[in-house]
Amino acid sequence: MHNLPTQLTSFIGRERERAQLRERLSSARLVTLTGAGGAGKTRLALMVAASVESELEHGVWLVELAALTDPALIPTALATALGVLSSADRGTLESLLEYLSERHTLLVLDNCEHLVADCAQLADQVLRRCPGVRILATSREMLNVPGEVIWRVPSLALDSEAVQLFAERARAALPDFEVASDNVAAVTEVCERLDGIPLAIELAAARIRTLTPAQIAARLDDRFGLLVAGPRTLLPRQQTLRATVDWSYALLSDAERLLFRGLSVFAAGWTLDAAEFVCGDQPGVLQLLEQLVHRSLVQVTPWKAEMRYRLLETLRQYAAEKAREADEEVALRERHLDWFVALAERAQPGLRTAELPDWLDRLEAEHDNIRAALRWAAEHRPEAQVRLSDALWEFWYIRGHLAEGQFWLDAAAQRTDVSLAVRARALKAAGSLASYRYDFDRASALEAEALSLAHEIGDLPLAAACLVNLGNTDAGRKRYASAERWYGQALQLMRDLDDNYGVGLVLLNQSYIARDHGQHARATELLERCLPLFVASGDRRRTGRTLMRLGTTAYEQSDYPRAEQLGRDALATFSELGFMPGIADCFELLASVAAAQGSAARAARLFGALEALQARIGRSLSPAERRLRERGLVAVRRVVGELSGARWRADGQALPLETAVAFALSDATLEADAAPSRPLSARERDVVALIAQGLTNRQIAEQLIISERTVDSHVSRIFDKLGLSTRAQAAVWAAGHGLV
Questions:
Q1: 3-state DSSP call for residue 13?
Q2: At what angle do helices 708-722 and 682-692 cross, to 10 degrees?
Q3: Which of 19, 142, 679, 724 has its C-alpha lying 20 to 30 A from 667's C-alpha?
Q4: Superfamily grouping for domain 15-152
């Protein structure tokens, strides 16, 4: 028995969600599906209800509340759905409770959010007085009833369910439409930019009659004007994307609306302290933020020791539009910029201490916010733009954002409408990054100008740093005598300033010159002198750099075991930090060692991984690095020939970075070993291939549409059959057997 409507369109995906909800309903008497408007709460609830109808003696009954405006009519709506007639002496509610008290049934209360308090009261009474009744509710916020289980409806999986939904609904509008190689990227972009929200994807797909997927994607900046073609039979608030969000916005209090608009300034999430600063012109930000979370407008996820919050992009664009209408955007942008300038300037000194990993992760998490702040500052506050660019240059270098960093630092270096002190630091930072990209002529010009300004304003630490960088640019151009003069001046100034860290930098750079002159004992002595200085400072990046250079020196002395061990030690550090240029340097060293030891396949694949990473971070090889690589490739070709060497390099280029690092840290050659005594099943091969792509067990479950528990079992059997103990080892095995 039921009154569920017949579905006129196919239901896509959600197998895992349906299974989980059935399990929840078996143990909880009230389950509330929450989520943003258009997330598919109603459709999912109906599918789950239909799947359990046969298990309930008295069936399932849908109560549609969206059209109700008077909370007093909720019992009447339920009575109508159940066919219960109220008696004159008992009233509708009492008649309902008496009727349900002996029933074993499921009630589906759909769209409770605008009547949430009254729905909560009704649900509470039903649960207390009717022990055989279970309730499945849909609402943009929880009912907050004792015993309630909250189940947030997630967005569709972007690489499978969302694309499939777009294709199905597009075919309804244009029967010969297919997702193919020429449009799959555009379809995926549409689904990603619409956050995997089913309603938004369906509205976009309806546009396929007149627009290609690429044209739809190009117009999503005006998504509220574009996505307006919902079926006339839907409720008015579901016929357009704007109407769906308008409904949620109208349910907010004035204070909640003010905060919602303020949060639109964050490009990709925020922390509580950031929200309190940027939106701090109103009291009780935490309490209001909690309300927006409860109303499914703000998403929250754990991040390290705190929470991060975000708006789906559709909601962020809506809130930003409302902020502009309220003339709030400029003030919000200014406070947003102030926050991220202060954050970057707090991070800058920490990038040379033991706090480096934490600061790198923080800046990476805020990178989209930082980009938005830079764009605003470039147009409105030049000094803030230059300060922010200077504070970020080492982050950009370490994490491999070289081209992006150079763009902003070059723009900062060209500004003359800022103070001399700020401009001098930006010039020095721009020169540093240019030097790391081997643009030594430009780096030298920038550093010379920065040094002149440092002397003019009396900033001796800045002058010392410029002297080091001028030495680096001359060393890079093989002007060794000039470089040594710059280093000598820098060393004296660093000692005068009692800057042991700076002394370590000079010694490190002097070791490069010694190595280039074949003075390996001298290079080793300089490196061993600077190593404890970096260790004492807590700077793991420069500690790793020193280890890597000691490894290079050992390689050039044909001490290959020592070179390999030092290279792996450095790589382990760089991988943990996400230091992309350092990882590339270690790939080069370990590839060269492998080539010298006759491990041609290992060497070729590491050279391939190196080339892929260099292209990814926008960094070319220096002349010395090119010579080292060519020397290794000559050795590879001598052993296996041109064709095999090229094939193995291509294999290395295709490796995901995590897999390439695991391979470099292992003793593997990636040759196809003998088949395991117990071969993997087809499903186990699918799982190990996804492990190699860096997916978690939960992500693998979503991809393969199986339970996470089943994936856990597959992984255990894979490790047992292959004799492995880590996911990194599994990734290497998968790469070596053509599964990546």
A1: coil
A2: 90
A3: 679
A4: P-loop containing nucleotide triphosphate hydrolases (3.40.50.300)
Q: Are 53 and 171 in contact (CB under 8 A)?
A: no
Beta bridge mates, 714: none
The end-to-end CA distance of the chain, in Å, is 50
- Asked if residue 607 lies in contact with residue 629, where contact means CB atoms within 8 angstroms, the answer is yes
**In sequence order, what are the residues at sequence separation of 6 or more whose Cβ sits closer than 8 angstroms to the Cβ of residue 369?**
266, 267, 268, 269, 270, 336, 340
**CB contact at 8 A, 140 and 295:** yes
172-202: b (≥16 Cβ within 10 Å) or e: eeeeebebeeebeebbbbbbbbbbbbbbbbb
Nearest Cα neighbor of 160 from 133, 182, 192, 128 is: 192
pLDDT band at 672 (very low <50, low <70, confident <90, very high): very low
Alpha-carbon span 197 to 378, nearest angstrom: 34
Contact 672/737 with Cβ under 8 angstroms?
yes
Which pLDDT value is given to residue 265? 97
pLDDT at 231: 61
Q: Hey, what are 522's tokens?
A: 């001298």
pLDDT at 738: 67
- Choose the weakest-confidence range: 246-260, 376-390, 704-718: 704-718
Helix axes 460-476, 420-436, angle to 10 degrees: 30
Q: Please state, as a whole number, how many other Cβ atoms lie within 10 Å of the Cβ of residue 456.
A: 12
Show contacts of 673-677: CB within 8 Å, 24+ apart: 673/736, 676/721, 676/722, 676/723, 677/721
Burial class (CB in 10 A: 0-12, 13-18, 19+), 54: exposed
In 3-state terms, what secondary structure has residue 411? Answer: helix
Question: Which of the residue ranges 76-85, 183-192, 351-360, 703-712 would you say has the lowest mean pLDDT?
Answer: 703-712
**2 secondary structure, DSSP code:** B
Domain positions in the chain: 15-152, 158-243, 252-327, 682-736
Predicted local confidence at residue 235, as pLDDT: 57
List the CATH code of the domain at 682-736: 1.10.10.10
pLDDT of residue 673: 43
Long-range contacts of 484-493, Cβ-Cβ distance < 8 Å, separation of 24 or more: 484/510, 484/513, 490/464, 493/460, 493/463, 493/464, 493/467
- Are residues 143 and 112 in contact, defined by beta-carbon separation less than 8 angstroms? yes
Place of tokens 């297919």: 178
Tell which CATH classification among 2.40.400.10, 2.60.120.260, 1.10.10.10, 1.10.1790.10 matches the domain 252-327: 1.10.10.10
Quote the CA–CA distance of 392 and 412 in Å, as a whole number.
12
Q: What is the pLDDT of residues 78-112, one digit of tens each?
A: 999 998 887 666 788 898 999 999 999 999 999 99
| DSSP at 669 | -
Task: Say yes or no: do domains 15-152 and 252-327 share a fold.
Answer: no
Residue 578 CB-density burial (10 A; 0-12 exposed, 13-18 middle, 19+ buried): middle
